[in-house]
Amino acid sequence: MKTRCGQRVIQERPGLATVLLAMIWCLTLSGVALAQEPAATAFPTSYTVKYLVPDAVYLDGGTTSGLSVGMKLSVQRKDAAGPNRLFVAELEVVAVTSISAVCSVTRKEKDLVQGDTAYLSASDIEARDLEVSDESTQYLMVASFSEGDPIDEELREYVPRPPLPEINRVRGRIGVDYGGLAGLHSGGGSSRVGLLLRADVTRIGGTHWRFNGYHRGRLDSRRSRRNETLTDVLNRTYQLSFSYDNPESPWVLGLGRLHVPWASSLNVVDGGFAGRRFGRGMTVGLFGGSSPDPTSWRYAPDRQLSGAFFNLERGSFQSVRHSSTVGVALDYRNWNPDRRFGFLENSVFYKHFASVYHSLEVDKLRRDGEQTGGVVPSRSFLTVRMQPSSRVSFDISHNYFREVPTFDSRLVGTGLVDKLLFQGVSGGVRLQLPRRVSPYVSVGRSSRNDDGSDSWNVMYGVFLGEVWKGLRLDARRSRFDSAFGEGTYTALDVTRELNERIRIDLQGGLQRVHSAGGVSNRARWMTLYVDWLLTEYFIGAGLTFYRGNGQDYNQWAVSGGYRF
User: Fold this and answer.
1) Residues 57, 30: one domain?
2) Most buried residue, 134, 170, 478, 539, by CB count within 10 Å?
3) Residues paired with residue 177 on neighbouring β-strands, in sequence order
4) pLDDT at 127
């Protein structure tokens, strides 16, 4: 016979005296518990949105705060024009832990932002209070004996668990792309057919594998990169990969076109990485592959990269957290060794208030084509960011290149290479005003060794998130002078969503670039794309106009496929 009183397990068959003593002991403990039982816990009725992911919202409360699966909450935001609160969205709890809850968005009128307040529904508050009241009523404990093992029975309570929302979550689209190109000066044209894929598949088959990214591949007769359009260059900035990260396993893997997670300052590689965790927060790994990303600061179509790294992470998201990576790498051109360098990355975060990030690459010093024992920095980037409130953030940065950057200059007006346009010290500020108005500005002073005098770099713009009925606008302008070259660009991005089914995106810009190699380029471009989401399918169409002293063309494309 076995029994359990409180936490004591009696293995042998008890006698009458033992049973009486056990009953007296249990009743004594029950009396003490009744005397020390506090009043019913006053659970909160509102919670803060602490994290946002696609199709899911994380709240700052869990079971210890009175939340459970199935509860419904209403997200409201204070009206900037008055004391009232505006309805934002309706949530339903789908998974909950002791200190956090995951919710799905069942209805939405505005975009949720971090810091929004979610209020528990009145019916759930009433049901929860009634349940707490019932649980607070004390009953005499009845001890029973059975042949089962109480420890096994206790463990069984933790076995049946519904799958987490991210397990086997499949989101994305796959389709066919057909388009054409008409060159105005040459009078010729071409057509092309390709495939497009956008996917986010998490916890595949209940495992810790993930497939994530975007790719748009086309097949046509043009093989020379000299004839590539702006759309073609943008399509080569994609990332698409399989990754494996199991908290219970020491191994971490990644395959595809991706960044090495612990060395994001390095170029994107078409290959993979493998890492192994040791002890607490230590990871050692290898990486390698080709490096064809045109946004890289040392871009070349025939470049390859391989190396090894060591990473150390400490701290937590609730206080101070830091990550340090050190490694060595070998750069190739057409599989011939071109450069050996070491790299170092350090980042320190204090909650959401402040962060410091620094990346450094060092090379062996070369003199007359021969290597010497010394090392010199070839690339350095330092940024310090502070966000004293949700309404304002400040940053100070320092950018340095020993060699002239070689990224594709056609991407200057797209904003993808803004970090490579400034050299020297710069500072900026970004505001979050009511109605999702966000002006931002960055001003820097370049001080290159080969400059006769210092020059100013300026970038400024504004994002308008609620212009009119789903219309959003992002406008920016930049004037730069660095090792890459000097110039200006102006860009505008306008998007409009209709009934969450039709999305219209209009982008355009003007750019004037005079590179360090003496090549000048003036261009005007505009792209219009319409995306129509059906129940399980999608249809899209796009049109691009490009006018420049290097290229002059019109490009069109239509696409369609299946959403999953």
Assistant:
1) no
2) 478
3) 194, 559
4) 81
Could you tell me the two tokens for 39?
């009043």
The partner residues of 197 in beta bridges, in order of sequence, read 174, 215
Helix or strand or coil: residue 287?
strand
Which residues does residue 326 pair with via DSSP β-bridges, in sequence order?
A: 310, 344
Tens-digit pLDDT profile for residues 67-123: 888 899 999 887 766 667 788 899 999 888 877 888 888 888 888 888 888 999 888
Q: What are phi and psi of 160, to 5 degrees?
A: -75, 115
Q: Tokens 């056990």, residue?
A: 22
Per the structure, the count of domains in the chain is 2
- Do 88 and 109 contact (CB within 8 A), yes or no? yes
Domain boundary residue among 100, 134, 168? 134
Question: Both tokens of residue 71?
Answer: 């509860």
**CA–CA separation, 510 vs 512, rounded Å?**
7
Tokens of 389: 């409130």
**3-class SS at 122?**
helix
- Tracing tokens 């208030």 back to the chain, one arrives at 353
Burial class (CB in 10 A: 0-12, 13-18, 19+), 423: buried
Residues 87 and 116 reside in one and the same domain = yes
Contacts of 189-197 spanning 24+ positions with Cβ under 8 A? 190/220, 190/221, 190/222, 191/220, 192/218, 192/219, 192/220, 193/218, 193/219, 194/218, 194/219, 196/559, 196/561, 197/172, 197/173, 197/240
Element containing residue 411 per DSSP (H, E): none
User: Residue 181: CB partners within 8 Å, gap ≥ 6?
Assistant: 189, 190, 191, 192, 229, 553, 554, 555
C-alpha span between 142 and 321 (Å, rounded): 49
Task: Find the length of the chain.
Answer: 564
Contact residues for 518 (Cβ-Cβ < 8 A; gap 6+): none
Which parts of the chain sit beneath pLDDT 50? 1-14, 16-22, 24-41, 134-162, 223-224
| DSSP H or E segment with residue 193 | strand 189-202
Domain range for 26: 3-37+138-156
What is the pLDDT at residue 411? 86
C-alpha distance from residue 253 to each of 243, 249, 258 (Å): 6, 11, 11
> Are 12 and 125 part of one and the same domain?
no
Has residue 26 been placed in a domain?
yes
Q: How far is CA 540 from CA 214, 419, 544, in A?
A: 16, 31, 14
pLDDT tens digit sequence for 261-270 = 899 889 889 9
Mean pLDDT of the chain: 80
Per-residue model confidence (pLDDT) at position 147:
44
pLDDT at 311: 95
Phi, psi at 56, each rounded to 5°: -150, 150
Structure tokens at 360: 């450094």
Q: Does residue 369 sit within a domain?
A: no
Place of tokens 């006769």: 452
Determine the pLDDT at residue 189: 66
Q: Which helix (H) or strand (E) holds 66?
A: none
What pLDDT shows up at residue 520?
79
Percentage of the chain exceeding pLDDT 90: 32
Angle value at C-alpha 292, between 290 and 298, nearest 5 degrees: 100
